[in-house]
Amino acid sequence: MSVARDERQAPDRRALRRLQTIEEILELAEAVMTEHGVSGLSLSEVARRLGVQPPSLYKYFPSLGAVYEELFLRGQQRHLAAMRAAMQGRTGLDALHRGLDAGGRWALEHRALAQLLFWRPVPSFEPSPEGLAVSAEMIAVQRTALREAVSSGELGAAADSDEAIHLLSTLIAGVIGQAMANEPGVPWGAGRFSPVFPRLMALFAAAYPPG
Question: Which parts of the sequence belong to the HTH tetR-type domain (predicted)?
Answer without folding.
Answer: 19-79
